[in-house]
Design brief:
Strand content: 25-35%
Largest sheet: 6 strands, mixed
Distance between the termini: 59 Å
Helix content: 25-40%
Radius of gyration: 23 Å
Strand order of the largest sheet: 1-5-6-4-3-2
Number of strands: 6
Length: 129
């Protein structure tokens, strides 16, 4: 099968040759080859992802939020260079760590925070906060 580098390079060469030769209607062929190359590049990148990483970006059961959107309390560990907190505080809610995605079943009242941690809504602040 043709890889994306070949298709994108080929479409660039075709575009230059057709433009220099004045074959304007044939430029559409280079455009179609370029679109095919972009589609192949996407397929190659998805094939290189691990299943857990792919699920994090493709599945949309629970939206992925960034940890910067919250104030974190009780640091537990770092995962993928990102701190994982036991409690996340947002202006409108307090969230408590339920577990890692894949190990904990996602429920409707949960949010997913990068890098794949599930948090459940909690009613009050932890003592001493």
């Amino acid at each position: 099968m043709l890889n994306s580098q070949f298709l994108l390079t080929g479409s660039s060469v075709l575009a230059v040759v057709f433009a220099l030769g004045g074959a304007w209607p044939l430029l559409s062929i280079s455009f179609l080859v370029m679109l095919w190359g972009i589609w192949r590049a996407d397929c190659e990148q998805i094939a290189e992802l691990t299943p857990n990483t792919l699920a994090m970006f493709v599945e949309n059961r629970v939206p992925v939020l960034l940890p910067e959107q919250f104030e974190g309390r009780e640091l537990l560990w770092y995962q993928a260079g990102t701190p994982v907190y036991r409690v996340l505080i947002a202006p409108d809610a307090i969230w408590e760590l339920a577990g890692k995605e894949g190990e904990t079943a996602a429920e409707p009242d949960m949010i997913r925070v990068f890098p794949g941690m599930l948090y459940r809504r909690r009613s009050s602040l932890p003592p001493g906060s």
